[in-house]
Amino acid sequence: MARFSPATVESVDLVPTGVGSSKARRARWVVARFRSLVAAGQALGALSRMRPMGRRLTLRSSFSPAAPDLGIFFPLDPDLEYAYPPPSPQIVANIAAAIAAVPTLYTQVLHLMNKMNLPPPSVPATPSTPLPNIEIAPPDMLEALPAYRNYRRGEPAATLFIKNIDHKNVTEDDLQRLFSAVAAGRRSATGSAVEPASVHVRLMKEGRMKGQAFVKFPSVELATEALERLHGGIVRGRPMVIAIGREHATAILLGIARDVDQSAQARLDALAKVQSVFDLVRRTIPNHEATDPLLVTESVIKRQALISASAGTEIRVATYKIMRILVSPSSVRILFSSHIDLFIIRTLIRDPRYDSEREQAIRFIRACIEEPEGPHFVPMSVVRALAAIAEQLDDRFRTICLETICELAVRHPELACFSGGTKAMFAALLDGPPEMLDPIVSTFLHLLDSPASRRYIRPHVELEMVISQFVDAYTSKTGYSIEKLVGSASVIRKVLSSWTGLVYFSIGNMRSVRSIVDALGLPNEDTRALIEITQDRSREISEMAILLLAGIMSLCSKQLPAEFASKVQSLPSLFRLATNFHDEGRRHLATSKLSQILNISRSAASAKTTMPAHPGLLSFNCVAQTRLDCIRVHAGLQIDEAQLRNMLNDSEVIGAKDFTKWNWDIIDDIVSGPLLNPKRYDDLVRNTKFVSRLIAFFRPTSRQFSDMPRNSPKVLRTAVELVRNLASTVEGSRVLADTKFLLEIADQLGQHTMPVCQDLVKNQASVTPDNVFLKERMEATMSSDYFWIIRAFTHRPDGLRLLEQCGIYNIFYQLADLRGREDLSNAILTSMDYSADSHPRVILAKMLTAGSRALRFTATLHLEQLAAAHETSFHEWGIPLLVVQLYDPVADIVQVAVGILQRLCRRPQNLAAFAQLRPDIQHLAVVGNDLLLQMLALPSGFKYLAEAGYVESEIDYWFEHGIYQYVTHAELSISEGLAKSLPKSAFDTLDKDLVLNMDGRIPIHLYGELAKTSGGVAYLEMVGHTASFLDRVRAFRDCIAPAAAMELKAALWALGAIGSSASGLAILEDGGAITLIMEVLRAAPVITVRGTCFYVLGMIGRSPKGRGILEDLGWLGESIHVPGDPESVLQFPEWEFSGSWPARQGLTFKPLHYRADAIEAEILTCIGNLSNHILSTAASKRLAVIRQQHPHYFVKPELCVQAWRICTAYHYRVATRRFIQELFERLVFDSQVLKVVDQMDGVAMVYPLDDKDSARHNENAFKSSLSLLAKDPDGKGPSAANTANRMSLQPARVIRGF
What we know:
Elements: E1 9-15, E2 29-34, H1 37-48, E3 65-67, E4 72-75, H2 89-101, H3 103-115, E5 135-136, H4 139-143, E6 159-163, H5 172-183, E7 200-203, E8 213-216, H6 220-230, E9 233-235, E10 238-239, E11 241-244, H7 246-258, H8 264-284, H9 288-295, H10 298-308, H11 313-326, H12 331-337, H13 341-348, H14 355-369, H15 380-390, H16 398-411, H17 413-418, H18 421-431, H19 437-449, H20 451-454, H21 464-475, H22 482-496, H23 499-505, H24 507-520, H25 525-533, H26 539-559, H27 562-569, H28 572-578, H29 584-607, H30 627-637, H31 641-651, H32 664-672, H33 678-685, H34 690-698, H35 713-727, H36 730-738, H37 741-750, H38 775-780, H39 786-792, H40 797-805, H41 808-815, H42 822-831, H43 839-850, H44 853-869, H45 874-885, H46 891-904, H47 908-916, H48 921-927, H49 929-935, H50 939-947, H51 950-978, H52 1006-1010, H53 1014-1023, H54 1025-1034, H55 1042-1059, H56 1062-1071, H57 1073-1083, H58 1087-1100, H59 1104-1112, E12 1115-1116, E13 1122-1123, H60 1126-1130, E14 1147-1148, H61 1158-1169, H62 1176-1189, H63 1197-1209, H64 1214-1223, H65 1231-1240, E15 1247-1248, ...
Antiparallel strand pairs: 1-2, 3-4, 5-9, 6-8, 6-11, 7-8, 9-10, 12-13, 14-15
InterPro entries: ARM-like, ARM-type_fold, Nucleotide-bd_a/b_plait_sf, Pianissimo_fam, Pianissimo_N, RBD_domain_sf, Rictor_IV, RICTOR_M
Family: Belongs to the RICTOR family.
Domain RRM: 158-247
């Protein structure tokens, strides 16, 4: 600061190390305060050019320089605002006078013009707009450039293509200022001034096109003038090479494609080249906003429209592909304003021969809908065509059209309703397809939620059609469809699993719910028939009926309340027959059937008490055994010598060497009982060969047990019991050691620990071919179960001693991270006993850290199973292992570890153990932020995180963004939990990736975790966020828009999380939050807001104090609280249906520009009558007659547009639409016809209606379509010559609706 005057510097301070942001803590900062902003600006400019000690200074200022890119570092006063008037001749004259009067001002203006690279004012004025000072390169210099090779100027067009630009030093702003100077002061064809902003520039700075640019002008004349004046201009040392842009080339190609005189192949080749050009531009410039001025031009769109009416299918397919490339947020409106919808609806209703063309048209429509504002530009005529296809059961594109209508209904419900889309959706609930039931119901629930979209759903009409299927099943004489019943049941379950659907079904004194319950209570003839079938004399039919009836009874006992299940299980009809002594034959038959059903029930009950199929799932301690097993063991201890001798003989172990003849049930009884009796021990071990033969059978070298196929649970159970019981005594351990059983297993396993190489002496591999632990044998035989037998040794000290003597654990250490044999590692992992702090835990830690990626992943997953098996001790040794996995280099393993820790930390001891380890906050905030939130529930965790600054930054994030993300996560989790029992749809996977580890539980909330500790409560009171949440809730009646409803839900969830703990509940009581939430529950206009209140009140009821408050408010329950009077919560006012007729929009079609004659009026009347199934036959016949007598009417474009307008306003099936299209098949859509369509504004409803006209249209819906015709100004009516052609049948009134 010594170089600056002391009078300008107020103070200079040295900021010590550690102050400032985290990134700047290692730097030293000097803070200089100047006495004026001008002095500070001068210092900033001077310091930016200094290099003290060869280093560049890092400068920060508390003000913004005026124009640093021009070298003007003087600051702007932040408190100063300018409100200068726009330039005018008088103002410009006054400025010129001031410049002439003040010489210093004149000098400063010249300096500023020089800085801005403006032309000097001393040169003579020219008629053209002055350009910046730019030098034009001589022709020989241009011709020597590589970019000038094969240069062709091209035909005039509105787009220029520039090459040879220094992309490193030239910016788009430079080119914008240069080419905008050409447009400045010009006027367009309409006489309006051309704005410089209408010149669009796109400069490529990467890829193969770097150093090239496109410039789009509003007219061809301006582009031509810019090329003549700037071609060869030197910018930053390089001359520009300017030529006509790509638009002209595409225009020529599109002209070839629409030329009917060209061959079909030539037209297809032209379209292929156009598509390649557009693809290249889109790939080169991903930003659509920059490419739209270059590609989406009026000439291109007009040519596309003409080509789409071409006679060739392949040509139309290619046209739709090109139009799909052009779709962008700003081009959707331009595309449909060219009335392309008239050709799209013609394509959609074609027959299956043109499916390729129809597919591309639907793809184009979906591309438009996917844009942010796309649904608001899609015309009603297109949606009408989609709805017609959606109602055609055999149409190939029915499903995709239904899906498209669902998306439209969510984003633009008014369009979907007035176009008949919602009607097609609800019809699909009954007719299928089944895979569309879930998205249709989800769309329906979304529409019901908000008042803005709810008015397009008729209460007590739409979903009641689904309920009626159950009533029709009992009343219909023609029977019923089981597919429709299953589909209707799925729909009702889906609706009732959401709060919105539950409220809807409760409207009108729960009329819909009562209808469902009454339908389920109606007598079912099928059940009666089943009772009769059980008495059929055919044994096979009777047995099948008995099995089905027993299954129904079992299902009723599980799902129905006891009072209803008892009525079903009593089988009154069958018991009535069994007690009828007047018919002995039927009585005995009914009695036998009841006995068979009872035996089936008993067999099912006894099957539940049997052990699991895989013995690896067994628990090897007596506590975990079933009571039946304990009784059997106790009985086995009481067996005397004679009984034992008989059992030994029956087992065939001593008498037969062939083990396939052994009785493993008896062997298991002997091993589990008498072997534990000291009196019988000598008889089994010393006096007989029973035990020795069993051990010999299980030895690996015997090739008996090891060669048995997998899944032999009885044999494995016997082996485990034998080893465990022998290892429990000293004598038994000696027997196991003498047989070298473990030594053989160790030898077989040890071969896999040696390096895989050839022995030079024996010329043999380290692993012998007959090794029982080869990979293929592990997969096919019982060899893999040797690890469970090894585990049996670990339950007794003598067994552990044997394992250590034989070196089993040493081998396990080496196999734990053996690459390529993860099957052995997995077998060791899942079979070891981790209850004691010994070798297994050390081996597990090695697998978690040193194993292969697959093994580490499997071992991490296994930790959650170990946590369930060792609940009391897992926090001591398992939680540290999981914390280590948080730092694994594989993201999938880290994600699994985070999920397991989140679930395990719901237990207080696990959470305390995790917090005690003090994990790294920065790392955990990235991979598992929820774990840090859980730590806030502990005083030590809150202190640790608060000292690190985590709480302050996290609460700021949550208040701005996190509470809104929480709403989405909570609703998805609840939806997933409620839909667990529902059949899965293909569309369910859309939401799977949004929420991880969500199983119906409420996610962790920052405010809820803070409220669990006294320090957190104090912090919440300090920041004052609770008061802000309460203010949002108080304004709940105004929260109707989606954004406002989201804010209200976020506030409710935050209050519920705070009130879920006893310490946080006190904060809510002070603000009267619970009473306010109850009011929102009963009066909120958005239904899902009411559902949020219900869940929030349930969260408040978690604490004893909260339960008391809810009980005072009339709620019942202990762990789950529900209103004592559900109707008071579920009642909802009905609404008025507003989707009956499109004229309610206040728009109609543009009237005809001429007076239609009587024949045209009759044609349009007949077309209107085609929508009425009563009048359609006569109307179609009359249209055929008129077409034969007056064919020239059906080539008039005005009449064709009028016909499609009626099809837009009314509902027509696909077959009828095809008939109407065939009427006008001779009309050729050339450029003249397209002009007529443009004059009529196509089939779009854009003509405004006043209130009087709107009321008249709504009063008589059918006549409103005829109002499209011109009125008779003289009131004389049609001429007498045309009256004979009129239909005598007057048009029928159409009831308001679809």
